[in-house]
# Entry
Amino acid sequence: MHLYMSGTPRNDPYQTVENRMNTHRLFSMHGEYEKQVMRWLKDIKDGITDAEQYLRAYPQHVDLIRNRDARRREAQADYGRTVDWDTVEVLETVCKKLDGRPHPRAILLDSGAFTAWNKGEITTVDDVKRKYSKFINLAGDTFDEIWGINLDVIPGAKGRDPTEDELKRAVEVSDVNFEILVKEFGDIIMPVYHQGEDVARLRECVAQVDGKSNYICISPRNDLAEGYRIKWSRDAHAELTANFPHILTHGLATTGNKMVRTVPWYSGDSAAWVQHGGYGMIDIFHDEDHAFGRKNVPHYMNYFVSFENVEFDLSAEMTAPDGSIVQGIALGLTETDSMASVADAFKQAGLGPDNFPLKGGHLTDPGKAYYSLSEEHQSYIRGRVESMGFPFEICIWDSRVRNLICMAEFVTFAEWAKTSQKDAGQSYLLGDL
# Structure
């Protein structure tokens, strides 16, 4: 499965690492997103392809990172943690480790129809035509492939099924937009088949590309439970396999574990790598040999690692290396003591920073809290992060690095999915997702 990483470019030094970590990128051209996308493209055209080049071109970012490092060191001190690094050096080192392709080779441009629909806004085909043209003209031969998603009209309103009249009108306008965009850009434009439309509409979408690109988008409804999205996606692919086996499919927002494992997508896209990192999580790929008592098939799992809203638990009893029991209350510590002084007291009692008792934040979900896992499980996660060139400690404090880790692990999952056998039976276990 080719995985298009979606998300608006942040246009920062981390961006050059992102560009080397993935082969496929999706950009929404909705509203103000266009400006950031065009800035991203200009940097690539200007030859800014690694962190060192980026920081030479935008030296103000060096000060921003240095200041962030200083604030991070202060926060670390509160938790008694002393592992240190220079973020500029880390980014430059990781870029060198990822030597080779300096940027994605395939681009998928999205009209922003779903974003507009979600916001109750209207996007015109002339606006989409202008934005796609601007990107394609500046890109020239920079990429191996550039695709564009049709300005499809999504039937109905958010949270309810569309009426027959809404379905009919949406199809009519979508087809007019498709003809306009194909006339302008040729066969790189992909029609979209939506959940809620009938099989006859799927055949119409196939007819629009049959013998040309042979490539369509399929869009499950985001407001339905994942099990129903999976079953509908499998039903659509069953129709294609039986009657149009040469047609390739791109799944819009279709990178859940079971969605990838049980539906034969040619490609898909996901913004989860951005979202999960922002939530304080990292995604980690597990193969059959590293299930740790969980799913016995390859999968990715997200783990909370950040210290956001996490504090010390003074009532917890911890065992020090010498076998003694350490408890904050027994040490005379109170809630009014500063975090730094509590950390110092725990250290003097023989605990290391990784063994300090913590509570709050995301630790209420022990199955996903890194600090609640077995030592073997933690070691596996640390090993995957450090193999990318990052010190593990950095993912506790830096959301952008968490984004990068999630991206790399999603790519690994997608690479596995290219050759995986799809298990039809799994898709109908609607309650076991």
About this structure: The mean pLDDT is 91. The radius of gyration is 24 Å. The CA atoms of residues 42 and 253 lie 27 Å apart.
